[in-house]
DNA sequence: GGGCATTTCCAAAGCGCTTTGGGTTGCGGA
DNA sequence: TCCGCAACCCAAAGCGCTTTGGAAATGCCC
């Protein structure tokens, strides 16, 4: 069933049927009702391919996921962000095009999307320092929103959490408990967010005249095994940390495993703070928060990012939209005073 | 830059340029080379919307994710499956359309996709008993592949792992170690896979004349907190289990937390086996496998599912394709003989 | 060199929708 | 009675591509 057939069956022109379905005012309400009823009865839905061609809009937003080498984007936060964004897209009538890039040529993928017009805008996640994607997308004149930020953050739209502040506060919290040998298990420092977190950590130390301890700092893909292996090595090494600051709950879970193997109880023998993205399957709140954590819902971020991106698509001349979200600090059972020995 | 402009600049007809770009034989190689060079120089890419309309193919595959109430699909395995499938789609020139359904009307979403022709086929994940999606998709005549299976599995294409066999084997493994009070922490038993796993568990017990213990069986969304809370309650209750069988590493991590809080060491005081989907950020293999586990890569499943679905789309008259994958049993450090007391 | 099969290219007709630029019709006011 | 204005509807022209059905040019054979 297509528009013409539907129109014929109603003794109307395709024009009128199209207008009736799309809510234009030039059609009598009675006619519109007739059309809507017939469309429903015939289970008619306008062909999206034809509609996209005719309107020139793709009604689609692209997410490009690089799959190079390490876990990188293939981490669990990716799913929750996607879900949040997808909810909004569905509500607003946009499709979500997910594009995996295996050859490392993310920029080529963007060029392709722009050239063949299959999306109206794209989401940029996990920017690295002076991320080339930003310059490229400006050049391509394709609406985009960055989750995170980098370089000079004035010329484009982004949404980010206050990473420096969060990690500075978390570090202060540990320092206030008397900890001095604090380890930082960070995400890959190629990413801007990890650099900021490190900076927050170092600033807090510096404010008390302390220097970071190189042997207690590591960064890598945020996996459980990274947390486990790194924490194990640090705990078994000279000058072991009395507290850990981790960039993700996943890492913290690895740390917990290392601690538990060594008979160390969290909150008493060892303290752990992490950043909690509030992943749906790693709820940190059951029976009181397990980990003391800085928190910010990645799913809510996905939702808001989608809203902003759609706004940018609808109003291309709009000045950039920028949002900085503060994080919460929730005190859980994984932190306590530095054990004196 | 569109086809006509490109053709004009080459003094060729759009027909010829289109054929040159699409590899048809009716064009001289020299001409083809000229066209390709010009297209590249002009950074030309055919408009995908127009192409889709003209060919009648969407070159898009849909994944529909229900977001009703509980975590359900919003679990971490979803991401890895998606990534695997996405790799193949990208290689084969298909787009991946991700559709979130928030109002619970998954079937309506499928109808919509079929009616407006925005996908050539869909992936069905996590089927429940006699899943209505299967009948619907047959009726809509939309190619689809089920990851998992349910009901009468002869009339459609699917890929599944041997859940019964896996859980039977895992249970046997625990029984051989002398365990008798074995707890099952399953995924939601509305899902077919969870029902099969339970069946494998019960069959293994029955084969030794044992009955399952109702107070040691639970099923829910596979979150860390489900594992933690349920294991805590069971361990603190009467007749605590000496071993756990869990449907996911995530659940097992929760069990480990409960055990560790009670000073129980895995592999010595308490045994845990889980099913491991080989999630990229929860590698179970670092420094020897942490958990004894039945294993099957969900990402590899995603890849293979995508391949099969594309095959089905290309050859609609093909008889159903069905694949049953066996799982590996990897012995890790989380299991040991039943402690005698 | 003419006939015939290839090779190489093109004009034009869709694909199914939206949208522009009118045409009718009906009604109130002069 | 006629005009003007809404209200309602339609024909036709795109959107940018693919593909059918030739036509012109070329090559080959006898």
UniProtKB/TrEMBL annotation, chains A, B:
The keyword DNA-binding applies. PANTHER family: HTH-TYPE TRANSCRIPTIONAL REGULATOR GALS (PTHR30146:SF109), LACI-RELATED TRANSCRIPTIONAL REPRESSOR (PTHR30146). Pfam families: LacI, Peripla_BP_3. Residues 1-55 form the HTH lacI-type domain. It comes from Roseicyclus persicicus. Keywords: DNA-binding, Transcription, Transcription regulation. This is LacI family DNA-binding transcriptional regulator. GO terms for molecular function: DNA-binding transcription factor activity; transcription cis-regulatory region binding. Gene3D superfamilies: 3.40.50.2300, lambda repressor-like DNA-binding domains. CDD domains: HTH_LacI, PBP1_AglR-like. The keyword Transcription applies. PROSITE patterns: HTH_LACI_2. The lineage of its organism: Bacteria, Pseudomonadati, Pseudomonadota, Alphaproteobacteria, Rhodobacterales. InterPro entries: HTH_LacI, LacI/GalR-like_sensor, Lambda_DNA-bd_dom_sf, Peripla_BP_I.
